[in-house]
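Chain X:
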Amino acid sequence: MYPDDQTLCQVNASVVRLGVVEGEYHWHKHDHDDEFFYVVEGKLLIDLERRTVELLPRQGFVVSKGVLHRTRAPQRTVMLMVENSGIVPTGDVQS
C-alpha cells in the first residue's frame, strides 16, 4: 500500500482502496492473498519476476498470492485496489 491510500469500503472479507500514486513501491509478495489493481487515470506498471504488466485507464490485473511483484507509476495515477482486509500492505517477504 502506498502511504496515501484510502480505504473506501469493506465488501465481505475484502477492502476497496483508492490510491493516488506516483513513483515506485518495493518488491514484495503476499503468501496467502491475491491483489486486484484497476487503473482509473494514468498508467500503472506491475513488475513481476519475468515480465512487466502495463495498465492504462479501465484496465485491471490480479497479482496471484505468492507472486513477487512491485508497482510503479511513472506519472500521477489514480487506481483502485481490492484485497483481503487483513492483508499486510508491505508484503510477507521483501527483497
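Chain Y:
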Amino acid sequence: MSAHVVILGSGSWGLALANLLSTGPLPVSIWPPTDREFDLLTARRENPDVLPGVKLDRRVSILRDPVTEGDPLHLLIVVPSHAVRPVMKRIHLPEQPGEGSTVICAAKGIEIDTLLRMSEVLDQVLPSAWRSRIAALSGPSHAEEVSRGIPTAIVVASPNLSVASHAQAFLARERFRVYISEDIVGVELGGALKNVIAIAAGISDGLGYGDNTKGALLTRGMVEIGRLGAVMGAKVKTFAGLTGMGDLITTCVSRHSRNRYVGEELGKGRPLEEILEGMTMVAEGVRTTQAAVALAKKHEVIMPITAQVHGILFDGFPPDRAMIKLMMRDPKTEDGIPIRLLATPNEP
C-alpha cells in the first residue's frame, strides 16, 4: 500500500479526525475497536452513539484488522488512555518506519498502574526504530465542533521538532490550525489533568454555584497542574497555552464536555456508578483523578482540588462539604506561602 494514514479508534474524536484528514492527499483508514462500531460504520457510515448526524466520509476505508503496512505511515491513536497499551500490542508495524512517518497519540490520560504518560507507554510498546517518531496531539478540540468545521487550534508535540513538523504538515487544514511544541511532557499533562478540574467545575455547576466559583476553580486548578508539571519536567509556560489554559477553559465550560457532565451530575447528588453506566463515551477524568493523586503523592506536590475530587469520586465525600474544606484551608498568599510565615517575630 502507498503512503497512508491509519486511525485507531472510532469514537467521536477518531471519526472527526478521519473526516478532517480525508480532504488531504493521503488515503485514510479507520479501525473500529469493537464489532458493534465496525458494523455501524460499515452499514451506516455513522456511529450515532458518539457522533450522531455525522457521516464518515466515503473516502475513508474501514478496517476489520488493525494490522498496518505501507511506507511512510501516519498512525493516529484515538482510543481511551486505558486502551492504548492493549491496542498497540495488537498492531504490527514494519520494523523500520518510512521517512516522515509519525505515531501521534490523541488520548488524554495517565496510565493508572504505571503512572506513565501516553508517549511513555508508546515508548515501551513500539518497535525501537519507531520510538523517535512519537508525538502527542492535544488542545481545545471538541469532536462535535471539529466535525462541523468550526475553527479550531491545537498543538502537536514531540521532543523531536522534525517529527512535530511532519505531523503539523499533514494535519493542518483551513479551519484546523496546528501549532508545534517540543514540550511533550507539558502538553500531555495539561491535556490529562484538566479533566480532573473539569469534574470539579461540573460539581460546582451541579451545586448551583456561579461564575465566581468556576473562575476560582479554573485558576487554582491550573496552579495545581503547573505545580505537578514543573516537578515532572514540563515547561511552566506550556500551561498558559492551548494545551493548558485553553483546553482547561473549553473543557470546564462546554456542554460537550463529558468530564464536566460527570461532575455536574455528582453535584446534583447522583452516584458515580449510575452516571457512568448511562454514558456511551469515556470520561477520562475519573481514571486520571486516581493517577493524579498518586503522582502528587509521589512527587510531594499539594493538589487540594484534585484531592477533594478524588474524595467525592471514590470515598463518598459530599460535594458541598468538599467545597467548604477547600474554602477553609489555612490562609496563604496567592503564590502559596502560609500567612504565618509572613509574620514578624514581634507580631502575635
